[in-house]
Amino acid sequence: MTAPMLEARGVRKSFGATEVLRGIDLTVERGQVACILGPSGSGKSTFLRCINHLEKMSAGRITVDGRLVGYREGAGVLHELSRTELARQRRDIGMVFQRFNLFPHLDVLGNIMAAPTLVRREPAAEARAYALELLDMVDLAGKASAYPAQLSGGQQQRVAIARALAMRPSLMLFDEPTSALDPELVGEVLAVMKRLAAAGMTMVVVTHELGFAREAADRVVFMDQGRILEEGPTAETLEHPRHERLRAFLARVL
Ligand code: ADP
Ligand code: MG
């Protein structure tokens, strides 16, 4: 049996005296899409950041593709990964943030090719061919030599998705990828994400876009005050929420 793509067990995180993650257990199988919903401050971003060790957990463990995140086990003891080992591990996890953070001085192709050529040392021709393929996938085939400032927010976010995919990750994390966009640009980004989901990518998506969740998510996870209050298959969970707090949340975002 193969390991789940993502397995989090008892993940806790404190900032000083404040515990913002209070024991998160979550399993995402290969090819599944999980949508995380929850009010602001419930710990969604912190949890995503723990998955690629941008944030160090206070307790618990996370495995991605069967490998422990941030640590290696030796003689029954956990050793923290070195910076190099950590960087290598992070390559398998793509992340897309609310803000696109493209390199302003590089054109679109340069943005997508930067990490594969500099970090993965892919030959330029190969990285370029794959970048063009990815640009096509995000509906930006004509924009290879445009600079970020010449693109709309929706186009920039689609470049950011292509850039993350260029590292050939096995897991993609999205942290409210459309919440900084003008409403008319949200659809084009969600369309690309749906395409990616349909192509079999394993995805964890923090979003308030219930339409996306309904169409693309296998399961929905509702976080509240640092815990998973409720989770389940998408339709069932959205249509028949068991907890009053999820019912209230859904009534607000609808
Ligand atoms: P969400 O993404 O669900 O809105 P976050 O994970 O961003 O929630 O934040 C959860 C809680 O943790 C919030 O109360 C936030 O203020 C706190 N928090 C997040 N990052 C830090 C940090 N670096 N230092 C202190 N508190 C933090
Ligand atoms: Mg957040």
From TrEMBL:
Record-linked Gene3D superfamilies: P-loop containing nucleotide triphosphate hydrolases
Keywords: ATP-binding, Nucleotide-binding, Transport
InterPro entries from the UniProt entry: AAA+_ATPase, ABC_ATPase_HisP-typ, ABC_transporter-like_ATP-bd, ABC_transporter-like_CS, MetN_ABC_transporter-like, P-loop_NTPase
Positions of the ABC transporter domain: 6-250
GO molecular function annotation: ATP binding
Transmembrane regions listed in the UniProt entry: none
Family to which this protein belongs: Belongs to the ABC transporter superfamily.
Listed PANTHER family: AMINO ACID IMPORT ATP-BINDING PROTEIN (PTHR43166), PHOSPHONATES IMPORT ATP-BINDING PROTEIN PHNC (PTHR43166:SF4)
Protein name: Polar amino acid transport system ATP-binding protein
The species this protein was found in: Labrys wisconsinensis
Lineage: Bacteria, Pseudomonadati, Pseudomonadota, Alphaproteobacteria, Hyphomicrobiales
